[in-house]
Amino acid sequence: MLATRLFKVGDIRTVEVAEPVPGPGDIVVKVEAAGICGTDRHLFKGEFPSVAGTTLGHEFCGIVVDAGASELAVGTRVTCDPNTWCGACYQCQRGRVNLCTNNIATGIGRDGGFAEYCAFPAHKAHVLPLDLDPLFGAFCEPLACTLHGMDIGAAKSGERVLVIGGGVIGLLAVQLAKLAGCEVMLLTRSASKQQLGRALGADLVAATEPEALEQWPEGADLVVECAGVSATVAMSPRLTRSGGRIMVLGVLADGVKVSIEPFDLLFREIQMHFSFLNPFTHARASRMIAEGVIDVSALITRRISLQEASDVIANAAPEGEVRAIVVPG
Ligand code: NAP
């Protein structure tokens, strides 16, 4: 079968490989759709650790073709929660499973969904309805991560929420903030992403920090950083109202430093939080996608083949692109 593998930093290729052999507790799915995420590009550039030679793809769904010892029926559509925590370490035992140092992420630490078939632990499968557009199943994982961030950010009805970054994570955060009853502004540079943000519920849009401050001079109660660049992390405190919160979801490369002013954070008592992965949120995300509570169809820019995937990951997303989805086979 074909699989898109990251052989080493900067070397990604779609190659012919053997079909996966399920380990104990695994199922095998025929992959229907797998999203290319900002994190795949971080992995390609070595800005996020991965295991050399791994098939990437951690946002995917597929049809069960081998149910192993599980109770899943062959033919069931499932989405994969890629993070397999050990359950035994200190962090797992206290419920902080996303901090498990033994976590093996499908598509990062073991072969993932940019392939015709993928094996992963059965207990990480969440059932999706067969009448759902399979492309929508590729959004369960990013929604689960965004849910974790929004849970920590705890936006309350009537609050002002500023989302920075109009990629998938940002556009999901916009929708979750609207569902929570907030007034929402999206700050992103691209005019087409601003337009999309408005269509998905953003009340206001801005391209720059001054444009945002012109509309909300006091700042937002909650700033959700979803761009993953130094400039947007650095501007987040300046866009936060006194007594407000910042939630950083964006991933900056290991070692990157950002200048912030602790005096300002202290004097205005701004809470700065970080959100990592999807602890206990994948089931909620799958349900929301299955029930159509979140609009993901608008986030699909194009479908691509496995053969195209390596080039797409190795290059920056073209202007205006939100999500390219790999459809194998
Ligand atoms: P993405 O598609 O690259 O979206 C990021 C967006 O940020 C871009 O669309 C870009 O849009 C905007 N942006 C970039 N520089 C900007 C600037 N200076 N000012 C304003 N907007 C700017 O990535 P994604 O898939 O949505 O993911 C977003 C981030 O979250 C990534 O860093 C990803 O690795 C991370 N992530 C984190 C988690 C977690 O668990 N914490 C999970 C998944 C993803 P414009 O061109 O319109 O500005």
Describe the SSE topology.
Elements: E1 2-8, E2 11-16, E3 26-35, H1 38-44, E4 54-55, E5 60-66, E6 77-80, E7 83-84, H2 90-93, E8 104-105, E9 117-121, E10 125-128, H3 134-137, H4 140-153, E11 160-164, H5 168-179, E12 183-187, H6 191-199, E13 204-206, H7 209-215, E14 220-225, H8 230-235, E15 240-248, H9 262-267, E16 271-274, H10 282-290, E17 300-304, H11 306-314, E18 323-326
Parallel strand pairs: 11-12, 11-14, 12-13, 14-15, 15-16, 17-18
Antiparallel strand pairs: 1-2, 1-4, 3-5, 3-9, 3-18, 5-6, 6-10, 7-8
Helix pairs in contact: 4-5, 4-10
The structure holds NADP nicotinamide-adenine-dinucleotide phosphate.
NADP nicotinamide-adenine-dinucleotide phosphate binds at residues 37-39, 42, 142, 145, 164-170, 187-190, 193, 226-229, 231-232, 249-251, 275-277.
InterPro entries: ADH-like_C, ADH-like_N, ER, GroES-like_sf, NAD(P)-bd_dom_sf, Zn_alcohol_dh
EC number: 1.1.1.301
Enzyme class: oxidoreductase
Bound molecules: NADP nicotinamide-adenine-dinucleotide phosphate
CATH class annotation of the largest domain: Alpha Beta
Radius of gyration: 19 Å
Low-pLDDT sequence parts: none
Q: Please indicate the percent range of residues in DSSP E strands (runs of 2 or more).
A: 25-35%
Give a count of the beta strands, DSSP E runs of length 2 or more: 18
Task: Work out the helix count.
Answer: 11
Mean pLDDT: 97
- The total number of structural domains is 2
Q: Could you spell the SSE succession in H and E letters?
A: EEEHEEEEHEEEHHEHEHEHEHEHEHEHE
What's the end-to-end separation, in Å?
9 Å
Helix content: 25-40%
Overall outline:
globular
CATH superfamily of the largest domain: Medium-chain alcohol dehydrogenases, catalytic domain
Question: Which fold does the CATH topology of the largest domain refer to?
Answer: Quinone Oxidoreductase, Chain A, domain 1
Protein name: D-arabitol-phosphate dehydrogenase
Pfam families: ADH_N, ADH_zinc_N
Domain Enoyl reductase (ER): 10-327
InterPro entries: ADH-like_C (IPR013149), ADH-like_N (IPR013154), ER (IPR020843), GroES-like_sf (IPR011032), NAD(P)-bd_dom_sf (IPR036291), Zn_alcohol_dh (IPR050129)
